[in-house]
Amino acid sequence: MEKLTYEEQFTDPITGAFPGKIDSSTLNTWSFNTHTVGKVGLTRTHIAYPVFTNEKTPSKMKTFFVLILMTPFGLFAQSSDVGNWIIYFGDKKINNRWNWHHEVQYRNFNFLGDTEQLLLRTGFGYNITEKNNNIHFGCAYIYSEPYIMNTDNKTNYREYRVYQQFITRQVFGRLSVQHRYRFEQRFLEDDFRLRLRYFLAINVVLNPKKSKNQNIYLSAYNEIFLNTDQNIFDRNRVYGGLGYKFSKKIRTEVGLMNQYTGRVSRNQFNIITFVAL
Questions:
Q1: Sequence-ordered list of residues with C-beta below 8 angstroms from that of 125, at least 6 positions apart, any chain
Q2: How far apart, in whole angstroms, are the C-alpha atoms of residue 165 and residue 128?
């Protein structure tokens, strides 16, 4: 199987830059298909693992979601061209005003062991009004291991990030809406960048007569990324999926996300699990 060169895999489609000039988010969220480069199809799939509690959950629905979550493992085992992202998102309620967010993302070029990136993010939020209008301050550490062009050897670099965000939510019957505004300060090894992000999401409960702690819902979002330098448009993401709330503290979504960077557009399968501690 023909392998893509380092340049073909990681050249910035907008700036033409290489690592040291591009950021780890851009580096590790790209993937290419045969329509893009005419060679080996590459994709990235987000994987997160749900944790089941002792609360009663409909057995058929639980089995359905477990099968969906396990399906990618067989695909990864057969091909190293598919990456595997193991993701944990956690939120801890401190009181009605304060919360602690934390996440770990371990991203691989293959199923497991060929490290692509490790991302650690954490921060504290404060609700301006009770249980809503959250202002949040946090930081992130990103370690990346890209391949060197035309070799099987790797290099590595790090990014440190500080960010501020504001989240507001509204509920209209079965429909819930979320707006998130984020401002990032990004410290790369030889560069400093600023980026703005706007995230709009909606969830629609499909079986409102069931328990509010166990239901099926549709999920969709759009997020746009804007730089503050000459290349203003960074990327846009559109997502649609189906979710299941297993309990008050755990829910899982399965969906498809399209990311457009100005020159490259690709689809990505997503499996996401949210845990409230």
A1: 98, 99, 100, 101, 134, 135, 136, 137, 167
A2: 13
Helix, strand, or coil (residue 246): coil
Strands 98-108 and 250-260: unpaired
Q: Calculate Rg over the CA atoms of the chain.
A: 19
As given in the structure block, the two tokens for residue 129 are 């009004």
CATH class, range 6-276: mainly beta
Assign residue 202 a region: left if phi > 0, alpha if psi is -120 to 50, beta otherwise? beta
Amino acid at 122: T
Measured on CA atoms in the order 133, 236, 140, 195, is the torsion positive or negative? negative
- Which helix or strand (DSSP H or E) is residue 247 part of? none
pTM of the model: 0.69
pLDDT at 41 over 90: no
For 237-263, what is each residue's pLDDT tens digit? 898 999 999 998 998 888 777 879 888
CA distance 16 to 212: 49
